[in-house]
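thoughts on my protein:
***
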Amino acid sequence: MDASRVSGTAPATRTRARTATLLCAAAALAAGAVPASAQPARAVMDPNPVVVVDCFSQAQVRPQEYLLACGDGNNRLIRLRWDTWGQRTATATGTDMVNDCTPYCAAGRFRAYPVKVTLSHPRPWPDHPDVQRYTTIRLLYTDTAPPPVAKDVTYKLVY
């Protein structure tokens, strides 16, 4: 009588189990062999971060995009790369995509403007008084600014 049939395990099942075990062990060894500098850093997340509120009254932390023109969508920050996100300010670089509205907005073209973004002046969010939200956004255009906007402009965030 075949010993594998007595124990209730077929040879094919044992082979699959050995293969799976070896693959798991190899994956564990490979993961351990990656130098610490190549492994992603584990960021310490603030349990109560300051947020920026978007046009839809949603709290955002380090958004990759942020709509500035809520009414018509003709101005949007994209490809935001956040350098800092703190209790007093947040800073990023990105691109401001602005519709030139020429000859009118529906027929206009979106133009890209490199920009540095600073969020500041956190205050309690009226909809959620226990949450702090940034109330000011500063845009510093690093090349040209979209006409007729100044190269350095600050807006109140009212959402």
In short: Strands lie at 52-53, 59-60, 66-67, 75-85, 89-99, 110-125, 128-141, 152-156. Residues 98 and 111 are 5 Å apart (CA to CA).
